[in-house]
Design brief:
This protein has 859 residues and is mainly beta. The chain has ten helices and 42 strands.
């Protein structure tokens, strides 16, 4: 009885101790050295542990803190592995034998460095070789097995870094979960799941990398039989290019890659499959998906770092592209690869191009076949690098677009594969045209081949497509309309206009695959067209203009940063124009560029300009030349930004002929500024400045200027009534608004300071015995307001005396003036007032206070 009670007390005490150990986890510093020594012997590396704690439940083992496994000095000074927390579970049966046998190692958030030396050897190779030579039992060994077993090593939420010697690469694997175990007596297994990343940039959608495999015991690593499979899924193509090259190349699509490796490193069979789903450029969307896929087989030998018996196939429509040969180090075995393109439909190629080249017609139809054979060879150390050669051909090529009403057809387009320095022929590639193929850049050169552009003799084209970009040169005669439609078929941005005429072209179309540095995203640079075009007899219809522009002749020079029209000889607004026009390029949206011009004409009419600019001339007046167009009409000027000089030998404004006109003109999206407007007007001179704002519903106008030596007789002649003669001048200011004549003159406000000399008012006679009123000098100020011209206290000096003048004159030529004379000797009276009413053509004069005074009206 006592024995049973003592036994119960002993069991209870043991339970209490176990519970205490479970909660307290006492230190086991005496075992720390043994654990460090055990791990160090297993990995053949110095090991450091911060602290060790015993754990009993749920299974006995140890909690290790701040585990550090140092690196072999031959690979660097940074530790090979760091783990803040490690759990080591012990085999219970080994404790009965008085030995610590680790069943499982669990690493939390470890950081592992994989280092490759200059000789190509990795730091993990020695560990695998040591494990292969160590006589350990499999991880899942029987309980009766006396030998120590290889522990199951598992890591969660880890990070794997890659280094080349002492240099840490930006590539890493994040959130890495991996495991290592000994599968059988002579075989080990490994499993990895991680997310690739770059440490020097922010990435997303890099996919999930999975790897699993086994290898067996062997005398050396090269003789180790292995079987590995790799899978990379859910990768976004743009992020993949950013991961590999450091830049998002602008390509989009989902990527999936799979590979298997079997054999030994000395003789390994490699099989790989890669596919890109829904391939397209980032700024191109398409309803139908495009899949690019390829399958490759080959044999790899680590002894000479050589891939042999490479055979890759990629089906393209009803055709196929194959690659076969060997590839290795040039100084040893060299490289010899052959690429064959067999019966690939041009339609499939066009489908790929539509995903890579923007602005191609949506209804583009392509027909024809592509075939070719190409080789690449590299043997021994050579500064020239690998040598590429081979030829191919597009046969029965035909491109059509119903929307553009365009067709391109040619019997054959030959092309070659080349990496030699590009030879410029006839200066077809100019210094201002980018990009050039880099020296020794691999590229496809095509042509020459004929391009029918509507003339009896076709133009000739040739060009290249390479890693950096593409370029094509076109030279010959063309119909302008045909050339514009062909440019639209090829996805080039052209002026939307109906144009007919001929041109002699020498152009290069060039573009780059690299992203545009000015873009926020991976924007592709637009193709640039450079060169010269000699235009002849071109009739161009521009939206918003009532009549076409007729270019009799001109030379168009297209540089990388500007387009310049030189030696312009054109007709517009029934006038003959000559001069030049410059337009910067690369400004983005229409209207962003400032057009510079220098134009001159011998004679032009303001009415003709109005009719040319106005698509609805029957509904508008001559003074509305630059006013806003009716709602819904397309305005030629609404987005135009232009600055330059205009000269005209003669400007017709109705019956008024203005000569030697010159001005500086600035137009900023509907706001017009005319500066330094000089002209010979009515025998005198004019100089002034005018502004107009057409952006509002009712345009605003304002101007000021100076008139000198104006012939009043010529002014009367224009009015078809010789009511005045002499000369005049003055300064004026005027402001008005409105969309029609009534609104303009009703709103007009302004003033005129005038000075008339040596004139005669031929219809006005103040007394019966006097002739027409002669004006020696008339100086004063007139104000325009409410459709009337108002004069206050001006002085008119005639041979008969001086008069004070007040009154108004309407724009309809109705008069209401008073002339006040201080003394009148003949009549023996004091001050007299002469009232002038009626019209300019038939004025009536009355005098007061002498009622008998009569006025004689001159016929």
């Amino acid at each position: 009885m006592k024995f049973s009670s003592s036994k119960r007390r002993a069991v209870a005490a043991a339970v209490v101790i176990l519970l205490a150990l479970f909660f307290v986890r006492p230190g086991v510093s005496r075992l720390k050295a043994r654990i460090v020594r055990s791990i160090s012997q297993a990995v053949a590396r110095p090991v450091q542990i911060g602290s060790v704690h015993l754990r009993l439940l749920p299974r006995p083992g140890f909690d290790l803190e701040n585990l550090i496994i140092y690196e072999d000095p031959a690979f660097g000074a940074e530790p090979m592995l760091r783990a803040p927390e490690v759990t080591a579970l012990v085999r219970i049966t080994s404790l009965a034998r008085g030995r610590l046998d680790i069943l499982r190692l669990e690493l939390t958030e470890p950081s592992l460095n994989l280092v490759r030396r200059e000789d190509g050897r990795w730091n993990w190779e020695a560990l695998l070789e040591r494990a292969a030579r160590t006589p350990l039992a499999p991880t899942a060994k029987p309980e009766s097995e006396a030998r120590p077993g290889f522990p199951y090593i598992e890591a969660s939420s880890g990070r794997i870094n890659f280094k080349a010697g002492a240099e840490k690469k930006p590539y890493a694997l994040l959130n890495a979960d991996f495991a290592l175990w000994q599968e059988s007596e002579n075989a080990w297994g490994v499993r990895l799941r991680a997310e690739p990343l770059r440490t020097d940039m922010s990435l997303s959608d890099t996919g999930l990398l999975r790897m699993s495999g086994t290898w067996q015991r062997a005398g050396s690593l090269r003789e180790t039989p292995l079987q590995f499979s790799l899978e990379w899924q859910h990768v976004q193509l743009g992020q993949l290019t950013k991961l590999v090259s450091g830049n998002d190349k602008g390509w989009r699509g989902g990527v999936q890659m799979e590979a298997t490796l079997s054999g030994t490193p000395a003789s390994m069979q490699v099989t790989a499959d890669a596919a890109v789903y829904d391939f397209h450029r980032y700024d191109i969307s398409a309803s139908e998906g495009l899949t690019l896929a390829a399958h490759c087989d080959g044999k790899y030998s680590s002894a000479d770092n050589m891939m042999r018996e490479i055979f890759c196939t990629a089906p393209v429509g009803s055709g196929v592209v194959t690659l076969h040969g060997d590839a290795g180090r040039p100084e040893l075995h060299g490289t010899h690869l052959s690429l064959n393109v067999e019966n690939v439909p041009v339609a499939a190629v066009a489908q790929l191009v539509r995903r890579a080249k923007k602005d191609l017609p949506a209804d583009l139809v392509a027909r024809g076949i592509v075939q070719g054979n190409f080789t690449v060879r590299e043997r021994g150390a050579s500064s020239r690098g690998p040598q590429f050669e081979g030829r191919g051909e597009f046969t029965n090529l035909r491109l059509q677009s119903a929307s553009d009403k365009t067709e391109f057809a040619t019997a054959s387009v030959p092309f070659v594969l080349n990496s030699e320095r590009y030879e410029r022929t006839n200066n077809s590639l100019r210094k201002d045209a980018e990009p050039f193929p880099a020296p020794n850049e691999l590229r496809i050169e095509y042509g020459p081949f004929p391009v029918a552009l509507g003339r009896s003799l076709p133009a000739q084209a040739r060009g290249w497509v390479g890693q950096s970009g593409y370029a094509v040169t076109v030279r010959g005669d063309a119909e302008v309309s045909h050339a514009l439609r062909m440019a639209s078929l090829l996805g080039l941005q052209v002026v939307k206009t109906d144009a007919e005429g001929t041109a002699q072209i020498d152009l290069q179309i060039a573009g780059s695959w690299t992203k545009n540095a000015a873009a926020d995203l991976a924007g592709f640079s637009l193709p640039k067209v450079t060169g010269t075009v000699q235009l002849r007899d071109v009739h161009a219809t521009v939206r918003g203009l009532n009549e076409p522009i007729e270019i009799l002749s001109a030379r168009l020079r297209l540089a990388a940063d500007e387009a310049r029209i030189e030696d312009l000889n054109a007709r517009a607004a029934e006038a003959h124009w000559m001069g030049s026009v410059e337009l910067p390029r690369g400004c983005g949206m229409p209207g962003a560029c400032l057009v510079h011009f220098n134009l001159n004409t011998a004679e032009v009419g303001l009415g003709e300009i109005h009719e040319w600019l106005n698509p609805h001339p029957n509904h508008r007046r001559w003074y509305q030349v630059l006013s806003a167009e009716p709602h819904g009409a397309a305005s030629f000027l609404e987005n135009l930004r232009a600055s330059g000089k205009v000269k005209a030998g003669r400007l017709r404004i109705r019956e008024v002929i203005v000569e030697r006109v010159s001005a500086s003109v600035d137009l900023e999206r509907g706001k017009l500024k005319i500066s330094d407007l000089r002209a010979d007007l009515l025998g005198g001179k004019h100089r002034g400045d005018w502004q107009a704002d057409f952006t509002a519903a009712s345009p605003d106008y304002s101007g000021s200027g100076t008139l000198t030596n104006i012939s009043l007789g010529r002014l009367a002649s224009v009015m078809q009534d010789a009511w005045i003669s002499g000369t005049g001048g003055g300064t004026y200011q005027l402001r008005a608004s409105g969309t029609d004549a009534a609104g303009f003159w009703e709103s007009a406000e302004g003033g005129l300071h005038f000075d008339l000399r040596g004139g005669v008012l031929s219809h006005v006679s103040l007394t019966n015995d006097e002739g027409p009123l002669q004006v020696s000098r008339w100086e004063g100020h007139a104000r325009l307001h409410g459709g009337e011209i108002e004069i206050e206290k001006d002085e008119l000096v005639s041979p008969a005396g001086a008069y004070g003048v007040t009154g108004t004159a309407s724009l309809g030529r109705v008069l209401d003036f008073k002339l006040t004379r201080s003394t009148d000797v003949k009549l023996g009276a004091g001050s007299l007032v002469y009232s002038i009413t009626g019209t300019v053509a038939e004025p009536r004069v009355a005098v007061s206070p002498v009622a008998e005074t009569q006025a004689r009206l001159k016929p």
